[in-house]
TrEMBL record:
The keyword Transmembrane applies. The keyword Transmembrane helix applies. InterPro entries: WD40/YVTN_repeat-like_dom_sf (IPR015943). The chain crosses the membrane at residues 35-54. This is WD40 repeat domain-containing protein. Residues 65-88, 277-308 are annotated as: Disordered. It comes from [Actinomadura] parvosata subsp. kistnae. Keywords: Membrane, Transmembrane, Transmembrane helix.
Length: 396
């Protein structure tokens, strides 16, 4: 049986509901014999007594104790070799360089809904240690923890009320968390022990032609501690649209997923202005940005090199890398975007094909700080086309 089929059957099994007393009724039918009238009357009296007792004295629901799970240990030392797959798009083999790997990817497709609205659906594939490649999943969202051992998944169609922790090596679901509010994204904390799940009242990736009044259906978020099994919900409404508000922080997008600070002490929500994120304490109170942390715009990845000496520059060819202390430019790179540090000397980046006549014909590359060396990691693809794939980078 394939892991995908096994995962799907586990989901169905978890959603199944058995009618109360089904086993008792089945056993009664199998063991039925024509007893005498006195025995039958006595049985009827006993049944009535039980019914009355249940009606008068309902048994309170039993609270399920919280139970944590032990996650597989991260590899130590983590591998740092370069792995490429430029023959398949999406990749069939692991793509990685230095401290980072393509842990998962998703394929996007647009589909019509009522009226003139459309929505974007993601089909997720995740790293499979057994084949050293990727396998498609049935989940609405996937995020792989640092170390590439487990993934947090949303079980459902587009959004869902169940978050699972999936062992990537065995395909076994280590834990499932039933949530009162549906969630649309999950992301692991930097230490790989907690899951941040953003809650929505409806699917956020719905668009209406010639309409800027859709708004965001974000309602709040859960912090799930895998060590204790505890999941805590906090309300956090979306940021206002900048077209209709002069607030300091605005965002007109429907999807406003939350992320972790680099030290895991705070969370942040994206903005459509500068600064590109708004920070909150774990209970949802607005707070100042943590000192010294710099981010690659729009992501939870650090813009600062592992040794703290260099900083990734903004998007746009050519990109640049500067000294953290002085701001001095130490290198320019012929790529479109700088995504993540592979090590202190090389960066995973978005490169474009040929002479970059078409910026949407691009792919994942490894580029040196001085821009003199470039290695193609994954095949180029039309990133603007329906059905294109998008990678997710995770520390190995």
């Amino acid at each position: 049986m394939t892991r995908l089929l096994r995962d799907t059957l586990e989901d169905w099994a978890g959603e199944a509901r058995v009618p109360p007393g089904l086993a008792d009724r089945a056993l009664r039918r199998r063991a039925w014999k024509p007893y005498g009238a006195a025995v039958l009357v006595a049985a009827m009296i006993a049944a009535v007594a039980v019914f009355v007792t249940v009606q008068r004295d309902p048994v309170p629901p039993v609270a399920r104790p919280l139970s944590g799970i032990t996650l597989p240990p991260r590899p130590s030392p983590a591998p740092t070799d370069i792995r490429t797959d430029t023959e398949h798009s999406p990749p069939a083999k692991l793509v990685a360089a230095g401290r980072m790997a393509v842990s998962a990817y998703y394929v996007t497709r647009q589909e019509p809904v009522e009226g003139d609205r459309t929505r974007v659906r993601r089909t997720w594939s995740v790293y499979d240690p057994g084949t050293d490649g990727y396998r498609e999943t049935p989940y609405a969202w996937v995020d792989v923890a640092p170390g590439l051992q487990v993934a947090a998944v949303i079980q459902g169609d587009l959004i869902g009320n169940r978050v699972g922790v999936l062992n990537l090596d065995t395909g076994q679901m280590l834990a499932t968390y039933e949530l009162e509010h549906p969630v649309g994204s999950v992301v692991w904390s930097p230490d790989g022990t907690r899951i941040l799940a953003t809650a929505y009242s409806s699917y956020p990736d719905v668009f209406q032609e010639d309409s800027a009044e859709m708004g965001s259906p974000r309602t709040g978020y859960y912090v799930i501690d895998t060590g204790t099994g505890e999941s805590v919900y906090h309300e956090l409404p979306p940021l206002p649209d900048g077209i209709y508000s002069d607030a300091e922080y605005t965002n007109g997008n429907g999807r406003q997923d939350l992320g972790w600070s680099l030290d895991g002490e705070l969370i942040w929500g994206p903005t459509s202005s500068s600064p590109d994120r708004r920070f909150y304490t774990l209970d949802g109170s607005p707070t100042d940005a943590p000192k010294g942390e710099r981010y690659r715009r729009g992501s939870g990845l650090s813009a600062t090199s592992p040794d703290g000496q260099l900083v990734l520059g903004d998007d746009g060819m050519p990109t640049k890398i500067t000294e953290a202390a002085t701001g001095k430019v130490v290198g320019r790179q012929r790529v479109l975007q700088l995504h993540a540090w592979a090590d202190n000397d090389n960066v995973l980046a978005l490169g474009c094909a040929g002479k970059c006549e078409n910026e949407f014909n691009n792919g994942l590359v490894l580029v040196s700080v001085d821009g003199s060396k470039t290695i193609q990691l994954a095949a180029n693809r039309d990133s603007d086309a329906d059905g294109s794939w998008r990678w997710v980078l995770t520390p190995r």
